[in-house]
Amino acid sequence: MVRRAIATSVKRLFDNEAGALAGREAEAVHQARVAVRRLRSHLRTFRPLVDRDWSAPLRQELAWLGTELGAVRDLDVFFARLRSDAQRAGGAADPNVKAVFANVRADRARARARLSSAMRSDRYRQLRDALERAARSPRLTLAARMTAREALIPIVRKAWKRLRSAVRGLAPRQSVPALHRVRILAKRCRYAAESAIPLEPKRAEAFAQAAALVQDALGEFNDAEQACRALRRLRKKPGLALAANALLALESESTARARSMWPSAWRALDDKRLRTWL
Predict the structure, then answer these.
(1) Which residue spans within the chain are E strands per DSSP?
(2) Would 1-144 and 146-278 be classified into the same CATH topology?
(3) E strand or H helix at 239, and its extent?
(4) Residue ranges of the domains in the chain?
(5) Tens-of-pLDDT digits for all 278 residues of the chain?
(6) Could you tell me the maximum CA-CA distance found in the chain, to the nearest angstrom?
(7) Angle at which helices 2-15 and 122-136 pack, to 10 degrees?
(8) Are 34 and 77 within 8 A, CB to CB?
(9) Residue by residue, what is the 3-state secondary structure of 144-187?
(10) What is the pTM of this model?
(11) CB–CB of 21/43 below 8 Å?
């Protein structure tokens, strides 16, 4: 089951490799980044079951690739948000807004060039070879000789407890870093639960889907917050202040809306009936 989880994500990366390398296909970049995130999460989640000397360098190289993919993906998301905001406000044709768009496109072109260079490098080829080997035969520990149920259910339970502890420790006015941490833990909890679906097809899948809703809700908050930060930087550039401030007002509304909505997704996940299998 560990091999299955790793191999599935490796295949996802390789299936989207050409599109990500070209840099023109936003969805391919997104899927490749998701695959890298899942792989890093699997290697972390399955830490008791995989050899650390083997997995640590692999996670480090995946972090490098994830950074390069993320630079492009984040700008894709940012540009899509700005375009939606401008259309909603009826300002897509405004020359000042178009100037902001052009600035973001230029940043995206530079990020795309760096990604293309990274994915054509010897470093990526070596990582690719390592991932092929990992998909075929991950280096496991003695603990991996346990049955899947004995090994994986406690791992999912631990991921859940870490997430629940983080949520319970939130201040009344949650900080952005604290919510970002909850989002990461929700993602890890989701991936761990998804790896256990062959053991508990209905219950693990329902739990994973509820965790995904928490992740998505906090992802919307994170995207809006990142857009606000980027727009604050853009408004310092000559000729962009007016449009950047107008778009910033819209993204600030999105941030507040997303902050108010994620608790309902959390309450659904926190339902004890979803955890009877843990």
Answers:
(1) none
(2) yes
(3) none
(4) 1-144, 146-278
(5) 999 999 999 999 999 999 998 867 889 999 999 999 999 999 999 999 999 999 999 999 999 999 999 999 999 999 999 999 999 989 889 999 999 999 999 999 999 999 999 999 999 999 999 999 999 999 999 999 999 999 999 999 999 999 999 999 999 989 999 999 999 999 999 999 999 999 999 999 999 999 999 999 999 999 999 999 999 999 999 899 999 999 999 999 999 999 999 999 999 999 999 999 99
(6) 64
(7) 140
(8) no
(9) HHCCHHHHHHHHHHHHHHHHHHHHHCCCCCCCHHHHHHHHHHHH
(10) 0.91
(11) no
Beta bridge partners of 50: 140
CATH 1.40.20.10 correct for 146-278: yes
Q: What is the C-alpha separation between 255 and 211, in angstroms, rounded?
A: 20
Nearest to 134 by CA among 24, 246, 4: 4
Class of domain 1-144 as given by CATH:
mainly alpha
The three-state secondary structure class of 140 is: strand
Neighbours of 177 (CB within 10 A): 8
Q: Identify which of 108, 126, 141, 144 has the alpha carbon closest to the alpha carbon of residue 62.
A: 126
